[in-house]
Every structure is written in structure tokens, then in C-alpha cells.
Amino acid sequence: MSKFMTQLGRADLDLLTAYLVRCERVLRIAVHKLNVEDFNESDEFKHQLVWDVNKSYFSRFGKLIPKNILRSMIDTRLANASSISPERIRDTYDLVEEIYTVRPEEDLVPEYGEHILGIFLMRRRVHDYLVETVESGVTPQDVAMQLAIRQRQATVATASLHIPTVDNMDDTVGAIPREPTGIGFLDELMGGFRPNELYGLLAPSGGGKTTLTHQLAASYAMAHGKYVLVLSYEEAINREYYTPFNAFISQVPRSRLDAVADFSQLLPEDKEKLAAGRRRVNGRVLYMDHSGSGDSRAGFGGVAEVDAAILRCRDMGVPISGVIIDWFYPLMSRAWALYSGLQRIEQRAFALQLVDEMKMVAGTHKCWVWVNHQIASAEAKKKRALEWNDSAEFKSLAWFMNGCFTISAMDTVGICKIKYSKARNVKVGEYTIMLKGDVATFESLSGDWVPDRNGEYKRAGEEGLVPGVRLGDDDDEAGSTAS
Q1: CA atoms within 13 A on the CB side of 175
Q2: Within this chain, do residues 479 and 426 fall inside the same structural domain, yes or no?
């Protein structure tokens, strides 16, 4: 089976084949875009054979192939073939039976068939390029540029599939309005989220990624009344994991939330604050445990995990507007482990492909996607303002993201810088922010905190400090300190 359809699952490839045989609208598109060679002959023999027969019949007669004729033509092909194992023959006939157990009036929704076909075509083009470059010696930057071109070509190639797509390499597209994140300093830097777009956050280990995740999810949900899905790959989801979320929405100190065995034991005023916060969120932040101790069904690696999680929510009647992935590396490593046939590909090139697929998920589901990643604290402390290029894994991934954020290492009182760059590492601006750890809230630094000559922040008025001094680089393009 092809490596990209492995991520979607064998059932999805079987369903795509059913659409190709039973749904004329999908078949008419596929006849011009899908080749027999797009299937892997060794692992997808049955799908390849059914598609070859189906395409030949439709090209000749212009109508859907009946079951008896499909089976008869397959009989002929198999009789004239050599070295076909009995198991393959049996699997092929089983697939034919499965195709015709689907009732088109109830189960074959053309839009969903177009969606599956579109993803298959787009992933196949990226896959072909990666295989071509295995031994070519190209640099990661060359891979990034060529994959960007391939993505554009794939978007054009699938334009007739009615899949909502945006050329995400071009941030000037203005047809889709932005929505505020609900966090002031983020909105000042980026202007808000836009569907179909992918954003990334790079921060040191223990640098506040998960805390900002809780704040971002809750703030967006409360601001717009829309659903946000949080997929945790780093930490198991339990009461301890939820504590920062509860502290943020209620502004009740974490120490008081942790001090009780049950929230019913909270002080009356704290209990009311927590209840009020939960009413504002109104259940619109959903968490799924994709850590090692989480949902075993999530363990098949790669973007398919994200796609499947969104679809599970949709099946429950919950439309997802934003997805936060905390964090990227376990997601990538699971998929990497499953790509046994592509192990020759350099891991960074594989990460590029994975991020590119993440953008496809954002475009397909009309949602924004936010991805967290971490850099070692020792590396983070070497520079006062992190760049995406400071992470070996993410050196080229910014080419595929619409917005990239970095949080520098915090000082002893929780003050750090957050920097925003657009795609291709174009620097936009930065703000000085402060983590109020007990209520799990990042805020723009107020004007009474200023740096001394060593860059250490203290309250204004303390001896030796000059109010208004800007943190960080001396250039003027760094952006102003929030007040």
C-alpha cells in the first residue's frame, strides 16, 4: 500500500475505490487525473486492478460498470496474468463484494469522495518528489522550495474537485477575514487567525507552550463561541494537565485549585469564579489524549491522526474551527516509524512533507492549525531572541507556515519575549510578555517593568533603572514593547 494512503488507512482506500466504481461524479474527475501507476502494485494490487478495469469500461461506454461485468472483466485479467497468489485473488474479489455493499443513496456522498480523491492526488505528488530526491543530494532549502512548487501544482490539479483550497504560500490573500485570537499581544502581532492557515510556536522545554495552549484555546472559544480541538502529544490528560486551563478561565490561583481533592471543596468565591469561567467556555474546548498513555486508536502516526480526530468531532456534530497540536515531534516520530519504505529520506525532508500535509488538513476542514514544538533550554539561553532557525528540525519548516512564533527563555520572574515571523522567516515584530504562573496567564508586560543595563527586568523606580528601555535587539524593526 502506498505510504500516504497507509496514513489514511486501508479502509479509506477501499472507500475511495467504492467511490470510483459507484459514484459517477467522482469517477468523471478521476478518469482525467488518476493513473493506474498512482497505485502501488505490490501493496495495492486489488485497488489498481479494479481501477484499471473500471477506467477502461467508463472510457469506452461512458457509464458506471455493473457488478457482474466488473467481476467478469477481473476474471479475464486474472486468468491471463501469471504469478498471482491465491490470497491476492481472494482479496480482489472481497473488495468487489465490499464495493457493492455500499448504498450510494445513503453512504456515497460525492463531496466526501472528492475530498478523499483530492488528498490522495495531492499526497501522491509530494510522495513522488520525495522519492525522486532521496539520493540527489539536495539541501533542505531546495526541498522546501520544490515542495512549495509541487503544492501549488497539486492545488491547481485538484481545483475542479470543489475542495476549498487557498494558496497558503501567499499571505497576501485577503478574501478570508481574520478572527481575533482573544489574546491581545497575539492579535497585535498577527491580526488574528484565518481558516486554512498553519501557525507554529517554538519555545524552550518548560517555556510555557502548554500554558499558552490552554490560554489560546479558551480565549478563542470564549471570543467567538466556536470549538477548538487540543491534541496532547506531550502530557497525559488528567486533572494535573487541566489545572492551568481551570486557573486561566477562573483566575483562581493554581495553588488553591491543587489544594483540594474535589472542586466542590473550593472556597465559595473560587467555586463561583470557576463556574463562571466554565459557562463562558461552554464546553467549546475539546481535549484528546494522543500521548503514549492516551487513545490507542490515535497511534497510527502522522497527519491522519489529526484528520481522524477532526472527523470524529464532526461525526458527533461538533464543527472544529481551530486545532492545537501539543507537541509536533511525537506526531512526526510516529509517522516516521511507520514509513519503513521511506527511511532513506532525510528526516528533515520528511518533516517538511508532514507540515505540508498539515496545511492540507487545515484547508480541507476550513480551520486554522497551531503546532507547538520545543527547543532544548540550553540552546534557548544562548540567544535572547529565538529564531525558527535555532531548531534543527524546524530550520526550513517556516517556509510552509503562515505564521511562526518563538518564546525566548524566561527570566526568574517569568518575563520573556514573543517574536512573530511570517512565512519564509520574514520578521514582523515582537513583544515583551510576562507569565503569571499561578493563574496560567501570559500578559503583555506593563509599563512599570523595565530592563536594567544587563537586560534584567525590575519594577520602575528601583535604583539604577531607566523607565522605557526596550528589551532585546537594538534595531528598530524589532517592534515596540507592549504596554
Answers
A1: 7
A2: no
Using the 3D structure, point to which of 117, 132, 157 is the last residue of a domain: 117
Mean pLDDT, the chain, as a whole number?
75
The x, y and z cell numbers of residue 271, run together, are: 467555586
| Cβ-Cβ contacts under 8 Å for 276 (sequence gap 6 or more) | 250
> In whole angstroms, how far apart are CA 97 and each of 18, 28, 93, 135, 343?
10, 22, 6, 42, 35
pLDDT band at 447 (very low <50, low <70, confident <90, very high): low
* 112 within a domain of the structure (yes/no): yes
Which residue segment(s) compose the domain that 248 sits in? 184-444
| pLDDT class of 7 with cuts at 50, 70, 90 | very low
Non-local CB neighbours of 313 within 8 Å, separated by 6+ positions:
227, 229, 286, 319, 320
Question: First-to-last CA distance in the chain?
Answer: 56
The DSSP call for residue 395 is T
Q: Three-state SS for 79?
A: helix
Q: Residue 25, class by beta-carbon neighbours within 10 Å (0-12 exposed, 13-18 middle, 19+ buried)? A: middle
> Dihedrals φ, ψ of 435, to 5°?
-90, 120
Q: Which helix (H) or strand (E) holds 350?
A: helix 347-365
Render pLDDT for 161-201 as a digit per residue (tens, 0 to 9). Answer: 333 343 444 444 445 788 999 998 898 888 899 988 999 89
* C-beta of residue 193 within 8 angstroms of C-beta of residue 203: no
Strand order in the sheet with 441-444: 285-289, 227-232, 320-326, 368-375, 198-204, 403-407, 415-422, 426-436, 441-444
